[in-house]
């Protein structure tokens, strides 16, 4: 591109399921007379103490921001307006502007300047799940929370298909009087369900309708708060009544993403507007790699939201199963990993030797002849491209069933097989993905099977000169006793930026999730009730956003931290069979995959005790991360003096889990406190149940908590003592839990102790 440089974010985006290869700073640069490049920067500044009138209105604050622009253009409206991309006034103090590196360098000398960095582009992290989570019409938490009535969920995504029946306002009351948002759709498209719709793409509030051209935003919105829709299905599969987690909650869409990703400046601008509009819950199914919180636009904006009592739920990312692969690590964010539900869309590979291997596929052709066909593995020639069925790698496969190695671009592999004349595809996992399979809308008869099944199928091919196979399409099957399983793609902890906080926080349904889609995926659905099945932590995040809305409706006085605590301390660590939740290996998932465990909405609605955190409680924690006063100001918008406030270790934050690290004799013994608040019966007694992590000694005092009032607080003390041989056997961490048990409640704090293996 002439006179332009571009370092592009590379992702694969398939039907809303996004897998991030890597993220680099992505900026569109314009050349100024061939000498210096201009790009969008996020600039953080201080509010002027001596000129407080600047903060009285948006116009005054914008005038203050414009004083930071280069002197040569600061007084020129024609030049200034194109330079200023966004101004922030609620969740952050700063702006996004088009600047050259030289101009940013000069800006550093101005009083009130804190920091600036080039805008990043972040990727998206891309029904039966209400029943799987125990949500039933007229019963339990749905009934108790009035299906989320009166709660407003703001979704930051790719837009929305507003005429989908999932966004009907049947049964939904008008929004609360506090709502100040706008609808950028024409006419009467918005209603009591979809109460707001804004478009923040291209560096400004466009005013154009936030139409969903990708499908991702429609899917996530309906997962969080879609209304009841009977007869929902995709390709005739998973037929039933679809509903979001909070079907009578209100929705507001803030379009910030396209197929190319989501720009950081737009994200912060949408968060800023959503807070002013009056949302109660924010849902962001997107994110990038780990950055310090003061350089992370989502972390900064989310802190501004929780200061206003707004709950923030974010996807953990799709970079698993590698450790330290998380997005959205800040402790004031609920970080959500992905798991399976107990439904599969079964497609079984039947081999010529009668071996059968169950897999999945959303596309279930009724006219596929189950006659045995020649079976081939293109990778047998040693060509990696052929093994992966990469575009242009296959030829002369007429009438054959083709085995393709899994990985990125699952549907695209089927397209290549079809182009080469193949009759069907068996997609086999690579070793890293184990038994984690995904139901996709393939373009030809196909099944996705496990790594072990793939080994067996390839062994069969090598055992005979005339291998044959077919695929048996068995439709919707419900009742997997191993559900929920952690998905292989779900990003894992520990947190890079704050290892003293256990992340992810929670897991929820994120594999083969049926939800609204703006267009028909099978070209056969009549009307507007079009659905699709998609996988990713993008799908698990809105499940938790909707559940948070239910809890907010039931407990309007609860803080974001209280809601988060209720979700985490009541989470499940056992599957439907009553054994430990497993991961893609079918062995028990570890704590860095599970976090606190799998969400249980009914229990979360009545947790007994909560671990509360107020926004100011994060300041000593941030000081303990060795952030400077100015860096903490970026996050909190407050003047902070860590030398006066004092710093605390990360694990001292009143978090619902413990993550401790021992690496030297000085850290072998550690002391912490936790404070619990009684939100159960006034007269309650809780006794301690303790499972101590191996290689660690623990003591808790007191061991009995006796409450006589609702909202009464009690503090307990915990001592950890790592054994001298901890980590010497090469085992890097150990797990346990601390549980307070009454006659009605069980409140669990999961524990991980990380050892130095040096």
UniProtKB/TrEMBL annotation:
The active site is at residues 157, 216, 538. Residues 374-457 form the PA domain. Residues 201-223 are annotated as: Disordered. Residues 40-125 form the Inhibitor I9 domain. It is found in: Secreted, Extracellular space, Apoplast. SUPFAM superfamilies: Subtilisin-like (SSF52743). Its main location: secreted. Belongs to the peptidase S8 family. This is Uncharacterized protein.
């Amino acid at each position: 591109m002439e006179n332009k440089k571009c370092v592009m974010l590379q992702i694969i985006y398939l039907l809303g399921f996004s897998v991030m290869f890597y993220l680099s700073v992505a900026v569109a640069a314009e050349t100024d007379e061939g000498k210096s490049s201009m790009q969008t920067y996020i600039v953080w500044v201080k509010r002027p103490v001596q000129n407080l009138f600047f903060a009285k209105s948006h116009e005054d604050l914008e005038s203050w921001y414009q004083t930071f622009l280069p002197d040569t253009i600061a007084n020129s409206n024609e030049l200034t307006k194109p330079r200023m991309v966004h101004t922030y006034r609620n969740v952050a103090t700063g702006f996004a502007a088009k600047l050259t590196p030289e101009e940013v360098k000069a800006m550093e000398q101005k009083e009130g300047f804190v920091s600036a960095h080039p805008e990043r582009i972040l990727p998206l992290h891309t029904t039966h799940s209400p029943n799987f989570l125990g949500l039933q019409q007229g019963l339990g938490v749905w009934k108790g929370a009035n299906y989320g009535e009166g709660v407003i969920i703001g979704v930051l995504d790719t837009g929305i298909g507003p005429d989908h029946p999932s966004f009907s306002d049947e049964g939904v009351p008008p929004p609360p009087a506090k709502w100040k948002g706008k609808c950028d759709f024409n006419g009467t498209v918005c209603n009591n369900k979809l109460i707001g719709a804004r478009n923040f793409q291209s560096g400004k509030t466009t005013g154009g309708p936030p139409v969903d051209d990708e499908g991702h935003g429609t899917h996530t919105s309906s997962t969080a708060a879609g209304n009841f829709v009977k007869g929902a299905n995709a390709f005739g599969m998973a037929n039933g009544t679809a509903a979001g987690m909070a079907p009578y909650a209100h929705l507001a869409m803030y379009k910030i993403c396209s197929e190319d990703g989501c720009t950081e400046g737009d994200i912060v601008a949408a968060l800023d507007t959503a807070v002013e509009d009056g949302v109660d819950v924010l849902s962001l199914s997107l994110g990038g790699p780990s950055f310090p919180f003061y350089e992370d636009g989502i972390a900064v904006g989310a802190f501004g939201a929780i200061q206003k009592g707004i709950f923030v739920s974010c996807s953990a990312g799709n970079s698993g199963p590698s450790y330290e692969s998380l997005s959205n690590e800040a402790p004031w964010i609920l970080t959500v990993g992905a798991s399976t539900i107990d439904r599969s869309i079964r497609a079984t590979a039947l081999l010529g030797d009668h071996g059968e291997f169950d897999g999945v596929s959303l596309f279930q052709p009724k006219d596929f002849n189950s006659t045995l066909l020649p079976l081939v593995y293109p990778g047998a020639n040693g060509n990696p491209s052929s093994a992966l069925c990469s575009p242009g790698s296959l030829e002369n496969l007429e009438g054959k069933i083709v085995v393709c190695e899994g990985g990125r671009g699952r549907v695209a592999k089927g397209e290549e097989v079809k182009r080469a004349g193949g009759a069907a595809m068996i997609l086999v996992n690579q070793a890293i993905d184990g038994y984690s399979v995904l139901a996709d809308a393939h373009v030809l008869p196909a099944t996705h099977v496990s790594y072990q099944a793939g080994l067996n199928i390839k062994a069969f091919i090598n055992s005979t000169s005339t291998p044959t196979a077919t695929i048996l399409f068995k439709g919707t099957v419900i009742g997997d006793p191993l559900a929920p399983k952690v998905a292989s793609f779900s990003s894992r902890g520990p947190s890079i930026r704050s290892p003293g906080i256990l992340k992810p926080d929670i897991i929820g349904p994120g594999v083969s999730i049926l939800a609204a889609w703006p267009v028909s995926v099978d070209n056969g659905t009549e009307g507007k009730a079009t659905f699709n099945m998609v996988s990713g932590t993008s799908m698990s995040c809105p499940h938790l956003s909707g559940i948070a809305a239910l809890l907010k409706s039931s407990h309007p006085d609860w803080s974001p931290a209280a809601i988060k605590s209720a979700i985490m301390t009541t989470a499940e660590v056992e599957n439907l069979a009553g054994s430990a939740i497993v991961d893609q290996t079918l062995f028990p998932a570890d704590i860095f995959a599970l976090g606190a465990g799998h969400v249980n909405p009914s229990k979360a609605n009545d947790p007994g005790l909560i671990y509360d955190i107020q926004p100011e409680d994060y300041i000593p924690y941030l000081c303990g991360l060795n952030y400077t006063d100015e860096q903490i100001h970026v996050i909190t918008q407050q003047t902070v003096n860590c030398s006066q406030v004092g710093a605390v270790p990360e694990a001292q934050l009143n978090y619902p889990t413990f993550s401790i690290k021992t690496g030297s004799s000085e850290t072998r013994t550690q002391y912490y406190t936790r404070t619990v608040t009684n939100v159960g019966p006034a007269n309650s007694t809780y006794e301690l149940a303790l499972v101590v992590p191996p290689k660690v000694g623990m003591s808790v005092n007191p061991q009995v908590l006796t409450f006589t009032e609702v909202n009464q607080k009690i503090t307990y003390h915990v001592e950890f003592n790592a054994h001298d041989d901890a980590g010497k056997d090469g085992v890097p961490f150990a797990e346990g839990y601390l549980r307070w048990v009454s006659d009605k409640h069980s409140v669990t704090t999961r524990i991980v102790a990380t050892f130095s293996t040096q």
